[in-house]
Protein: Phytanoyl-CoA dioxygenase
Organism: Ktedonobacter robiniae
Amino acid sequence: MELTPTQKQALYEQGYVALPGIVPQELVEKALHAINASLGSEGMDPERLPTLRAQTYCPEITASPEITGLLTESPLWSLSESVIGQGSISPVKSGQIALRFPAPGPARPPRPHLDGMHSSNNGVKEGTIANFTALIGVFLSAIPHDFMGNLAVWPGTHRLYEDYFRKHTPQSLLKGLPEVNLPELQQITAQPGDAVLCHYQLGHGITINTSPYIRYAIFFRLRHVNHEQWQWECMTNIWREWAGMHDFVNSRVG
């Protein structure tokens, strides 16, 4: 499976592309069963909640086939290879189980962030940036409205941050998220089986969940096989690791 020219245009301009219905419902239900079975048998230690929120819920099943199969057994894998490069994605061994539980209001907009920046609970070593190539979100529950724990994105910020890092070096991210003129945020709505493919450098966040329902989603972080070598370069040349986008990008730049 490959992105259409229209989808590539969205990825190029906005930094993300929505992929409705791309994950078969059978795989969605297997993942939900595994997560709910884990919650019912393992529960959650209240003292670990900050770490679970920042890293993953149900850590004992993140590498299970019920979770990884959402990526590897669905069209998402071939689609990802079509834009990053055939055989160019390092093996993905686990997925982040991202749950957002109902919370009291008021509904307030989230703040943007880039993944891989150190915080007290996320497991990223201080003084490092754990960036990657692409973020894939797979939604397992219905998110028809805003403020249901939606993934929030700031379209086009992948290019704004690219410009910033060209002027101030990628390592400036160690000092905190750059201050740029942000566009209006967009909250992504979805149905079970929908997914979204995002460029790593897209500013994003998660909204508060004011609904009565738990939001279920799985996030996968894809890394090009040469990412360790290109880690800093790909922050100032944001399509460096996207071989399947090069012709499209060159046609727009040239």
